[in-house]
Amino acid sequence: MSSSQPYIQSSPATPSRRRKSKFTFRQLHQLQQFSPSNPLRVIAHIDLDAFYAQCEMVRLGVAEDQPLAVQQWQGLIAINYPARKFGLNRHVTTIEAKKLCPDLIMQHVATWKEGEERWAYRDDAFKDMATQKVSLDPYRRESRKILAVIKDSLPAAPIQRVEKASIDEVFLDLSAQIHSVMLERFPELNRPPPYDDPTENLPRPPTTALNWDTDALIDLDEGQKEEEDPDWDDIAMLLGSEIVRRVRAMIREKLKYTCSAGVAKNKMLAKLGSGHNKPNQQTVVRNRAVQQFLSGFKFTKIRNLGGKLGDEVVSAFNTDTVKDLLEVPMDQFKRKIGDDTGAWLYGVARGEDASEVNPRTQIKSMLSAKSFRPSINSMDQAVRWLRIFVADIFSRLVEEGVLENKRKPKTINLHHRQGGQMRSKQAPIPQGKVVSEDILFDLAKNLVAQVVVDGRAWPCANLSLSVGGFEDGVTGNRGIGSFLIRGEEARSIMNSARDTPEQENVRDVTPPGKRRRVDDGIGRFFTPREDSKEESEIDGHRANEPDEEMHENQSKNTPSSEDLYRGGSTPPSAQPQAKESPPLRAARHQTNITSYFCPRCSISLPASAQTEHEDWHFAEDLQAEERNSRPSENNTAHSSGPSRKTQQLPLKRSRGRPAGGGGTKAVDKGQRKLAFG
Ligand code: TTP
Ligand code: CA
Ligand code: CA
Q1: How remote is the CA of residue 47 from the centroid of ligand 1, in Å?
Q2: CA-closest residue to ligand 1 atom 4
Q3: How far is the CA of 249 from the centre of ligand 3 (A)?
Q4: Cα 49 to middle of ligand 3, angstroms
């Protein structure tokens, strides 16, 4: 790439001019509909430069030329551009980084710590990998502000179409906006087509210079000349680029962040463009420059080709360059990698990507996880981590509008890893009332208790908790009656009380050592404590908050929940409720008859399992005593006291762990992998 010269129409080398554009009136007007097949389409991708590092710079008021990196335990996860000049990257440890760049500021990410109500920035966090957990809340918050500025700097929907693609990037489909600007600036486009025939070609654009301003323009394809007349697609790109420059300037002005952008005919090219000239620049890939631009890339850099599929393509065709793929005929693609993937890849090599900018991308799940080094060895420890996971997830749920019932998760999942074995438990979240932190905590504890009673729970190397199955709720004030469970919902409670094969996974609480089937269905329901706290309303309408799950935690990396229980019915509560529908009361009554409630695990078990379960607790206690590591106050963790406060225990730093905990270990790769794997 190089030529950022504006094209001047009056160039002496102007070849013979066509009288008409190659684009039709119909294509111009269909720009308003965002059709992915429109040849005039303009897509932008905006990506923040060294995002977490910039967040810290802005927060701390650090000078722009000051090298700064964001630290996570002993590794660096974001490096600002001044620091990159010293050769720093994500593979450098903090010690190496300081050697390479003695002036470097290393700011550790904020962390959650048991016993504290909120995440916080702590200077010594890096020593405490074993007992703390990263919080990305500060970056999510900045991300939301940036998204708001972007949306504010564009015309209102439906002309604006914004998709948040990750914590620091968005796609914009600028087609509709460009359509209206074109009609405004080029009145000849407002005239009806000749013979009222929309398939007629448009007149040529006027002979004005295209001023690409500060854009990095990708060189044209071979055989294309800058001197050739521009057509409307060039004009559309230019207008798109103007819009993006304004959006970037707004972000800079209002929030101080710099970002880079790509402008092209589709998402794939726009994304490649935004990464092409960093930081603080924008790159335009005109339609006539696509092939030239792409041929310089390894296809493994292209969206969806970075992972396993990319590797497969490399071995199937013995190359990793786009250029070589262009030689491969369609039928060979299809033969080697299958019809659909083959056809898709054939298009990708030619710069084709028909995916839409999807403004309705919403959070599908939220996950909070921790890899333990060293492993954890008791229910106590697990429960303390669950408290953190729940606080983390709940704060995100609040942002998502659960308190106003805008959106609501239907299920809660726990994944537990012990050695090479991953186990999952899932339960429905009661749908009759507002989700509270306590409800989630009780559900989570119950799930981990299920893993424990299955046996072989310890040592545990990784725990993760997620909520999913989000549904749009009813907004506005709901009458008290709407919180009662009735009709279909009530019926489904009753149905779910009967044992069905798909439900086994959730309610399989067979005591350790005896993996027999328990036939008592209803008795195995968990029993969320009634939330007495008055939930306050929060402001901020974020109906379209997109999926942020890929950051820190990617549910795709956790075992598929496909085979898990998918029931959406509301489980009955075993606790007295202020308003209770008759079916619920009946269900609860039944629970009392057939089940035994273990106050230590807050879980209902079949009455027949009581003796065995108590024996198992006894054995656990004994073991703990032998280890001499259960201070008496920790027993409160097992009590089912009414207030969550009684269950917030100081984290223990010992229990068979080497001194210094995870602080002396290598970087927490597992978490980073979870983040971006
Ligand atoms: P990126 O956009 O990939 O990188 P960046 O914004 O730091 O730098 P660039 O200027 O090249 O775009 O990621 C966005 C943020 O996500 C990044 O600031 C930190 C976080 N992140 C991780 O925590 N781990 C990772 O492995 C990656 C790639 C990013
Ligand atoms: Ca970035
Ligand atoms: Ca990014």
Answers
A1: 10
A2: 50
A3: 19
A4: 8
Report whether residue 140 contacts ligand 1, using a CB cutoff of 6 Å.
no
pLDDT single digits (tens) 230-258: 899 999 999 999 999 999 999 999 999 99
Closest CA to ligand 1's atom 24 = 77
Domain end marker among 361, 384, 416: 361
User: How confident is residue 515, by pLDDT bands cut at 50, 70 and 90?
Assistant: very low
Distance 48 CA to ligand 3 centre (A): 7
Count of domains forming the chain: 4
User: Up-side HSE of residue 332: CA atoms within 13 Å toward CB?
Assistant: 8
pTM of structure:
0.69
Considering every ligand atom shown, identify the ligand nearest to the alpha carbon of residue 669 and give its number: 1
State residue 90's pLDDT score: 95
Owning domain of residue 583: 529-621+648-658+665-672
Q: 163: Cβ below 6 Å to ligand 1?
A: no
Which residue puts its alpha carbon closest to atom 3 of ligand 1?
50
The pLDDT assigned to 625 comes to 52
pLDDT of amino acid 330: 96
Distance, CA of 268 to CA of 174 (rounded, Å)? 15
Tell me, in angstroms, the distance from the centre of ligand 3 to residue 169's CA.
Answer: 5
**Encoded tokens for 276:** 């092409």
- Ligand 1 in reach of 56 Cβ (< 6 A): no
For residue 671, what pLDDT band results from cuts at 50, 70 and 90?
Answer: very low
337 and 350 part of one domain: yes
Tell how far CA 523 is from the center of its chain: 36
Cβ neighbors of 445 (< 8 A, separation 6 or more) are: 383, 386, 601, 602, 603
Alpha carbon distance 214, 90 (integer Å):
30
Tracing tokens 């008290």 back to the chain, one arrives at 480
How far separated are the first and last CA of the chain, in Å rounded?
31
pLDDT tens for residues 171-204?
999 999 999 999 999 999 999 999 999 999 999 9
Domain boundary among 118, 136, 154: 136
Query: Residue 107's closest CA among 82, 128, 79?
Result: 79
Q: Is the CB of 48 under 6 A from ligand 1?
A: yes
Burial class (CB in 10 A: 0-12, 13-18, 19+), 222: exposed
Q: Pick the closest to residue 549 from 663, 645, 677, 408 (CA basis).
A: 677
Rg (CA), the chain: 29
List the CATH number of the domain containing 414.
3.30.1490.100
Q: Does ligand 1 lie within 6 Å of residue 435's CB atom?
A: no
Average pLDDT over residues 540-560: 27
* Any atom of ligand 1 within 6 Å of the Cβ of 165: no
- CB-ligand 1 contact for 552 (6 Å cutoff): no
Q: What is the pLDDT of residues 575-590, one digit of tens each?
A: 223 333 333 333 333 3
CB 397 within 8 A of CB 467: yes
Q: What pLDDT, on the 0 to 100 scale, is given for residue 531?
A: 24
Q: Give which of 71, 16, 128, 117 is closest to 660, Cα–Cα.
A: 128
Closest atom of ligand 1 relative to the 53 alpha carbon: 18
Give the side-chain half-sphere CA count within 13 A for 593.
9
